[in-house]
Amino acid sequence: MTITxxxxxxxxxxxxxxxxxxxxxxxKFVDDIHSPGExxxxxxxxxAAHARIVSIDVSAAQDMPGVEAVHTGAELAAMELWVAPLxxxxxxxxxxxxxxxxxxAPETVHHVGEIVAVVLADSRYxxxxxxxxxxxxxxxxxxxxxxxxxxxxxxxxxxxxxxxKAYTWAIDEDPEGTQAAFDAAAHSVVCRxxxxxxxxxxxxxxxxxxxxxxxxxxxxxxxxxxxxxxxxVMAAATTGIPEQKIxxxxxxxxxxxxxxxxxxxxxILAISxxxxxxxxxxxxxxxxxxxxxxxQGRGQTQHIELASxxxxxxxxxxxxxxxxxxxxxxxxxxxxxxxxxxxYHGVYETPKFxxxxxxxxxxxxxxxxxxxxxxxxxxxxxxxAMDMLSxxxxxxxxxxxxxxxxxxxxxxxxxxxxxxxxxDSGHYLPTLDRALDMADVAGLRAEQQRRRDAGEVKQxxxxxxxxxxxxxxxxxxxxxxxKYAAGGWEHATVRLLPTGKVEVVSGSTxxxxxxxxxxxxxxxxxxxxxxxxxxxxxSDTAISPLGLDTYGSRSLAVGxxxxxxxxxxxxxxARLIAAHQFEAAPEDVEFEAGSFSVAGTPSKSVHIxxxxxxxxxxxxxxxxxxxxxxxxxxFDPPNFAFPFGTHVAVVExxxxxxxxxxxxxxxxDDCGNQVNPLIVEGQVHGGVVQGAAQALYEVAVYDxxxxxxxxxxxxxxxxxxxxxPSITTDFTCTPSTTNPLGVKGVGEAGTxxxxxxxxxxxxxALRPHGITDIDMPATxxxxxxxxxxxxxxxx
Amino acid sequence: xxxxxxxxxxxxxxxEALAALAEHGDDAKLMAGGHSLIPLMRYRLVTxxxxxxxxxxxxxxxxxxxADGTVRVGALTRHSELEHSAELADxxxxxxHVASMVGDPAVRHRGTLGGSLAHxxxxxxxxxxxxxxxxxxxxxxxxxxxxxxxxxxxxxxxESVLADDEMLTEIRLPVSGGGWNYQKFNRRAQDWAIVGVAxxxxxxxxxxxxxxxxxMRATAVEQAVAxxxxxxxxxALAADNASPPSDLNGDAEYxxxxxRVLTERALKAxxxx
Amino acid sequence: MPAxxxxxxxxxxxxxxxxxxxxRTLLVHALRDEIxxxxxxxxxxxxxxxxxxxxxxxxxxxxxxxxxVQAEGCDIxxxxxxxxxxxxxxxxxxxxxxxxxxxxxxxxxxxxxxxASVSLLEEYPDLDEPGVRVGLEGNxxxxxxxxxxxxxxxxxxGKEA
Lengths: 795, 273, 161
Known about the structure:
The structure holds three protein chains of three kinds.
Chain A: H1 19-23, E1 39-45, E2 51-57, H2 59-62, E3 67-72, H3 73-78, E4 108-109, E5 115-121, H4 124-132, E6 135-140, H5 147-152, E7 165-171, H6 175-183, E8 187-195, E9 207-213, E10 218-223, H7 228-239, E11 246-249, H8 265-277, E12 281-284, H9 290-293, E13 300-308, E14 314-326, H10 336-341, E15 352-361, H11 375-393, H12 397-402, E16 412-416, E17 422-426, H13 429-439, H14 441-454, E18 458-468, H15 476-481, E19 490-496, E20 502-506, H16 515-527, E21 534-537, H17 555-582, E22 589-592, E23 595-598, E24 601-607, H18 611-617, E25 629-635, E26 644-654, E27 660-670, H19 677-696, E28 727-731, H20 749-766, H21 780-791
Parallel strand pairs in A: 1-12, 10-11, 14-15, 20-21, 27-28
Antiparallel strand pairs in A: 1-5, 2-4, 2-6, 3-5, 7-15, 8-13, 9-10, 9-12, 13-14, 16-17, 18-26, 19-20, 19-25, 22-23, 23-24, 26-27
Chain B: E1 7-10, H1 14-24, E2 28-31, H2 37-42, E3 50-53, E4 64-67, E5 70-74, H3 79-84, H4 86-91, H5 93-100, H6 105-110, H7 113-119, H8 125-132, E6 136-141, E7 144-149, H9 150-153, E8 154-156, E9 159-160, E10 167-174, E11 181-185, E12 195-200, E13 205-209, E14 216-217, H10 219-226, H11 231-235, H12 252-269
Parallel strand pairs in B: 1-3, 2-3
Antiparallel strand pairs in B: 4-5, 5-10, 6-7, 6-10, 8-9, 11-12, 12-13, 13-14
Chain C: E1 6-12, E2 15-21, H1 27-34, E3 53-56, E4 59-62, E5 75-77, H2 79-82, H3 93-100, H4 110-123, H5 129-135, H6 147-156
């Protein structure tokens, strides 16, 4: 590895410390780790979306070579491998319906892909063979295959509930006032948007390996998880194995995007079977299997209405969501739409705001968090609706935004939104101006007009989106108020070792974000040492026992801040030792660039790294001071953080084929202070493409029997480099007021901005046809059909 | 996803391969590069009892030669070899170009022309190309060698006139001059065509990808061009005899529309006014 | 081992390995599970994602779409052996470029992406940015949005993006 910068601290584009192991194949993902005597689980999955299990014949499978056992759901339940169903940590209302979700269906299946029996075999090939030979007979029940069917509520996804509705949740203090605003509106728009279901498709499929220690009674679970700490608590609650006997390790994890933050049947099966059998138990998901074995994202029908005065200034926003829970409530399934609830007014002031969300069960794979979780949906709805309002009012999309930005687009701090939460800081106008300038929107519009006048086949569209997101999850009290079961703090330990090196123990759980690098940079700046003298330990509950893991763009704004605060505590303790050495008062000892010195006597100085051994040897410490330099902090943020930005997308549409090419993308983001701009840019690039992929390529298609039609990457179109453009990025900096580092979060920002920007561009291109909306993904056929319909039906 | 178990025969010669095919009948599958067969086996959509691997039979079965107005391509010639062949670029540039549009580079390194033709996928690029180019396919079986016109080769979805005990050994194409073009429309570069159109030899040959259960000639277009029709008028006939599939990327009606649009583009690019 | 197992010799990263495998054993499983070279990853079932890309006789190939038995007699290079194919004792220039351009995040697609890129530049030495993008059509990444991957490949080709 070339080490390019030995002093890189906060703000430096330091190259990642993680890369060496990853570019050489040295990194170990779950499927890379093996243990002698391991048993492979093969999952027999339901081929029916909603059915009673009549019989399961395991005899042929049981007799196959390499097969140790085949267990049905009923048998596993009788073996008491679990004491509770899989957990839902976010019962959003007191009366929320939450039918039990067992790791293996005991009697009735509720979605295709639900496990009905488990094979244990001595190889992955033997397990795959045996699965094929388990014969399951089903008695079909009516399947609820879509949100519309769920809302119609005539057939029920869970027969014994008698309804598909899981809950109703609202922020609606003054519905009459909202209605009055609509009655008095000079302009209004009524929109219905489909947030199609998405398959998260982290490149590494999920996998587990549970290693028992039969004599000790302990069990270690390796899992491709974003949430080893939460998993440990939940595994204890679900299996009945005492929590202190469970260790969870997330080794190298190949992306998550929310899809690895759940408590999954395979994880519970592995840990419980390994514990019971005294043998290692493992499973690795296949990509095709993942459509039924890993939760999916989005899945909402959004109804959003805007009212404005004659100038296009908003007077009211009313939102009704129908959210598809899928077949079961998984860890935070019901809460995902609510994460967006506070943001349906976007970056705009509105006197009246009404929000209602109804959650519905369907017989499809459960939904849960997917990059942005609720917030891309909110941003999409308001930003698409604002464009539609701009058409109504007859002003440009940028002008409708300028007229409505919070505080007129000028800087603000602690602005109270209509839902009663406080935006920490914002300054929206510069991101819009910079994005328009960077993309040369004026020049693009001239070219767009030229092509329109010339009647060219390839037309241009320019779309924009100013988003705000809520991240830095989260103040624990706020989570409690929302009925989320856990807190939102993060834990860090900073340890100055005897040789002067530093160990950071973090409760954040990276899976591609580069925490080892960023956390080292924080220490470098705080403690005045080389980031290469820092090692970051994480993702193993035995090494990092306290943590709440990585999701919701929380790691830096909560976990990174905890590290910074723990480092400060180490420095303060070290200052006492330095003062003792200098025979000076601690308040006279200054700390600068890693060295302590006495004010006015620069010749007397000691580097903090030298004090590691002093504290370790403990031969001459101040009276009453404990040996060693190790401090810990659990940081509970006082507020969320609210990053924002403006994105501009440029598309070219072939009107004859309907093909849409994303040919340019310009992103101006503001995530407050940045620790590593290189990593920040990478997060924006990846997020933008994930949102653009939703806009143009991806949808999990279910047929009317709730079978998924495109589970493979051959048919589920994750785009490649060939379909995506270069992305031009720039940043403004409005520090957060929520934390001492002034940082916000950037893991989801790109995704939150891009789907709306891309579809706004597609619709912009099609506007001469009178087209004002198009569903996602804007496939060639869909675009071509819209043009044909606008022209009166002729091809 | 893992293939079901099978027995494996690595053929050391065409004769050995044919003997294995004769012995195992329709329980055997011939494998060249494996790039059509292995994905199907991983999904267990195909579960042969015996796989006869001819991938290592190089010699006459792999390579390109041009003589007496005929291009001879060994059936085991890989897509990337077609793509980069200077001889082919000269003698039959459309085939080289179409080969460069198949799958992705890694697929082109392993996939073979004979394998692609024998697989007879109507959504594949190369079957349509050899159809437009008026190729002759040479097959060997227990009774010796026979020549099959490309136009007679494809009989149904993933089906051809090739018998269970035959294998393709060579593809012969006339040295082709004149305007040509290949239009491939898909959503991702790596994907199969939603619709493709190959125009060869100033539209003497026009063929369609993914417009029916087999790769097919657009004879109405060929005839119209031969009779002097404009590209626009000829292209309007592109989907006339097609019965295209409906799938997630496009229904039959949209495919018909695409066939007309792409045919017009291909004809114009090939120099038909 | 089933009765139809066959003995094969695979040459991987310059070393010879004698294996006994079922004919159906995918090359990627032979590399990972039999030889223990776990740097080659599996991301799909359909030859779509390219995470399993290796070099076979110097050319990119998807090791999930080859049987181990097909690889007999070929020279295989996996990510673990890539650096050894160049002079010097550090990383291969493509590995170095991915590092310097921040062309990876979670790193799961990275071994396949790097090997596909090495092969791509070998096959098409004069690619510009659109050419690199199309050339990487068979390798999917979910983290980077490809921007810095393309930059890395161009940088390794001596063309600054």
